[in-house]
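User: My notes are a mess, but here's the protein and adenosine-5'-triphosphate's SMILES. Can you give me a structure?
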Amino acid sequence: MVSLTGSMLFPAAVQHGSTGSARFSIWGTDTTSSFCYNQRKVLCACMAPPRNIGSDEYGATKFNQLGTVLEPEDDSDVLIECKNVYKSFGDKDILRGVSFKIRHGEAVGIIGPSGTGKSTILKIIAGLLAPDKGEVYIRGRKRDGLISDQDISGVRIGLVFQSAALFDSLTVRENVGFLLYENSTMGEHQISELVKETLAAVGLKGVEDRLPSELSGGMKKRVALARSIIFDITKESIEPEVLLYDEPTAGLDPIASTVVEDLIRSVHMVGDDAIRKPGKIASYVVVTHQHSTIRRAVDRLLFLYKGKVVWQGMTHEFTTSSNPIVQQFASGSLDGPIKY
Ligand SMILES: Nc1ncnc2c1ncn2[C@@H]1O[C@H](COP(=O)(O)OP(=O)(O)OP(=O)(O)O)[C@@H](O)[C@H]1O
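Assistant: No problem, the inputs look usable. Here's the predicted complex:
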């Protein structure tokens, strides 16, 4: 299932399981419009166990002398792969050969200067934008076109956009349970209880009947998060999910940022423990400019610059990297290869 909410939040999700299939839907809204598509039958695939992505074992993600990223040879745990992805808007070449893999169990951050295409690559992964060139593989299967054009197997992809973009005229309960009201066979009471549970999981209680206008910015983000992790508990198999967060802490005060960062961590559950619990998130990707979010919410970083991944490494390597681009970015210096 993929759900979208434009300037906004896009929870996108493709349900999968070990034996069944699931609906795939997209929904989104801004203050003037809304849309909803439901249709995907999605195959299931067994998930490989999470890898140890500690820096030593993950040394293969470093660059060799030619600047080429070396990856582990075993790709059985790769959920999403972008291979040489290009994207232009008019005469602006934004992505110029972006390649990376997201493995099961990973918490990955995408960082880089403004306008380098971080949100664009998230939209491409989610299937909202098609690359001009290059491929996106979902559990090894090449995706052609956009999400609405075909089945996606083996993974549920959720995209949570910068601002919550909740439906203004719907209550919190209706916003969070939207896809279940629309798509599931669950009864109203059951959905209502699940919404309550899911809201509690993101630290919100007693706000079900409020309208979005009655919430603070941080609360709206948490409601959006709840909407992205809720799922149909009546299904026999519930699929792990990859969540894509676009600047989830932008505009939040430091404490509210910490709350959201910890929530992102807390819904990252892998393995059997997560079955039937809200937030069965196998892996997630966070686009962020916030140092606190980099430190607190992700383990591995991809640095996007001039349309390419120019560096990747573990989070703790970010501040000690000798790469001049990374050094300048980490220090916020005006001197260096990045020119504004
Ligand atoms: N649909 C679109 N049509 C035209 N130009 C676009 C579109 N989407 C993005 N762009 C342009 O592509 C560039 C990259 O945008 P994107 O939002 O992906 O950057 P970003 O790295 O996420 O930036 P920021 O860090 O400032 O959020 C920008 O110059 C933006 O104006």
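The longest helix spans residues 188-201.
User: Great, I'll file this with my notes.
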